[in-house]
Amino acid sequence: MLEHPIAYINHAVKIRPAQVWKDGSILFDKPDQTDFFRYLYDACSGQYPKFHKMDPLAKLGWLGSEILLQGIDFSRYQPEDIAVILSNRSSSQHTDEKYYKTIENIASPALFVYTLPNIVIGEISIRHKFKGENSFFIFDTFDTVSMHGYVNALFASNQAEACLCGWVEYYDDRYEAVLYWLEKDPQGLALPLEEQELKKLYLK
Amino acid sequence: MADLKVQIIQQLNLQEVKPEDIDNDMSLFKDGLGLDSIDALELIVLLQQNYKIKIANPDDGPKIFQSVRTMATFITEHQTAQ
Fold first, then answer.
1. For residue A56, what is the domain's CATH number?
2. Which residues of A touch B15 (CB under 8 A)?
C-alpha cells in the first residue's frame, strides 16, 4: 500500500536569465530587459524600498519568494510553523568579492551585511514574518537527496507545517532560482514531496 | 544642502527617493526617511569619503545625523575649523 505523502509541493517558481516560470507556466520572458531584477520588482511587487539595498543573491531569493507566495494564504499558519530551507553553490561569494574590494579604501557596511548566504532567508522572513526553522546549505549542485531528506524530517517531526524551499544561486551575473512551497495538504500542483519530483522541478 | 541630499541618495542607494522628497529638517531615521543602523554607518563613510571628516565621538552621531540640515551644519563647522 502506498504511504500518504508527508507533504506536497503545491507551488513552484523558477527564475533563469530573463525568464520566470510559475507552476510550470512561463510568467515572464524579457530578454530585452537590461535590469531584469528591477523589472520583476516593479512588475510583481514594488513598494519595498529596502529591496534596492539588497545584494543580488538576496534580491533573487526575495523576488522568487514574492512570485511564489502571490495568491497563497499562509495566514492560517503560526509564523513559527513556516520554515525556509535554501541552498546554492556559490554561497555569498559574489558579494564577498565586492566587499573585499571596498576594504582597500573604506569598507562598505552595506555590503558587509550581505556577506553571508543565509541573509536571503532573513530578507524573506522579514518580508513575510516567517519565524520557523531555517537553514542555508552549500552544495555543488541542487542536491535533491539532501534537500528532500532534510525537509521531510522537518515535516515528520512536526517542526514545520509549511516550508519555502529550494535553490538560489548567484555569482558573477549568472543566476538561477528554483523555489517551491510545501504544505501538508495538497493544493495547486499537489505533487508529492519526493526526490524525483524535486529533480523534475529543477530540470524541467 | 541640495548636493548633500544627492550624495545621501547615492550612498544609501535610495532608488525610489528624489532629493525634493527630503525636507531639510525631516528626521533621517524612524518616521522620517526611515534609515536604519547600517545606513548610519554608510553616512559616516560618506562624511569620510566626501568631506574627509571623521566623527571623533560616536555619541555625537544622533545629533549630527538628525536631519540634512544638522549634517550640513556639522560639515560646514568642521570645514571652517580645518
1. 3.40.47.10
2. 49, 52
Q: Does A106 touch chain B (CB under 8 A)?
A: yes
Residue of A98, A99, A106 to mutate for B, most B C-beta atoms under 10 A:
A106
Domain count, chain B: 1
Share above pLDDT 70 across residues of chain B, in percent, rounded to a whole number: 98
Min CA distance, B2 vs chain A (Å)? 21
Domain span including residue B61: 2-77
- Asked if A71 is an interface residue toward chain B (Cβ–Cβ < 8 A), one would say no
ipTM of the complex: 0.74
- Return the residue matching grid coordinates 531569493: A61
Return mean pLDDT, chain B.
90
Q: For residue A182, what are the contacts with CB-CB under 8 A and spacing of at least 6?
A: A7, A8, A9, A10, A151, A155, A162, A163, A164, A165, A193
Contacting residues of B for A52, CB less than 8 Å apart = 13-16
Query: What CATH number is associated with residue B56?
Result: 1.10.1200.10
pTM listed for this prediction: 0.90
| Candidate from B14, B17, B45 with C-beta closest to A106 | B45
B/e letters for A79-103, b = 16+ CB within 10 Å, e = fewer, are eebbbbbbbbbbbbbbbbebbeeee
By C-alpha distance, the chain A residue nearest B42 is: A109
Q: What is the DSSP string of A86-106?
A: EEESSTTHHHHHHHHHHHTSS
Higher confidence at residue A201 or residue A12?
A12
pLDDT(A17) > 90: yes
Whether residues A49 and B12 touch (CB distance < 8 A) is answered with no
